[in-house]
Amino acid sequence: GYFSWLAYQSGARVVAFNYEAGQVKKATDFLLGYRRADSQRLRFEQRNLYDLPKEERTFDEIICYEVLEHLRQDQMVAQEFYRILRPGGVLHLCCPNRLHPRHQAEVLDTNETGGHVRPGYTEEDYRQLLEPLGFTIEMVVGIGSKSVYLADEILRKIRNRVGDLTALPLFPLMLPFVWFAKVNPNQPFSLYVRAIKPI
Predict the structure, then answer these.
(1) How confident is the model at residue 157 (pLDDT cuts 50, 70, 90)?
(2) What dihedral angle (degrees, nearest 10) is formed by the CA atoms of 94, 37, 42, 19?
(3) Cα(46)–Cα(101) distance, rounded to whole angstroms?
(4) Which of 39, 70, 104, 169 is the most exposed place for a label (fewest CB within 10 A)?
(5) pTM, 2 dp
(6) How far is Cα 154 from Cα 170, in angstroms, rounded to an integer?
(7) pLDDT at 189 over 70
């Protein structure tokens, strides 16, 4: 719900999808219940991105953060993103950098049970995925220096040992690692792409 909250605070109307019902409930309880966000402008839905062909709403922007690398049918999902974006709409996509040593060494989840089904994407991979669909890639930015990698590694170990709920309060402590990370490091941890659906 973090990016949903940031989008909401910008004044946008936000619909956030998550595959896990428990995550939807936690985000709803915290942001709508505790933080008292306006339920007319912020909502959380349990959705599978493979069900996007049934989606009839259209959107000005889509934020897909560290998700596509978990899905075998990434091309179908990207095609649906294009379909449900309004003309001039923006896709904000961030995935692991396939060339980063950490992602190259990862054991892949070929059964699509929650882990990475691919080690990530390069700029060329993004272009091959998005441009044939009609997207215009406006920007590609590398995110994450070694400090981001270390913060991610620490947080993963804590989450695996004590669970998501217990680790959640530690997430804000990791944000400075991201905020102060050098942009476009030599070997970025992740790659962000801003892609436009032409008018």
Answers:
(1) confident
(2) 60
(3) 33
(4) 169
(5) 0.80
(6) 10
(7) yes
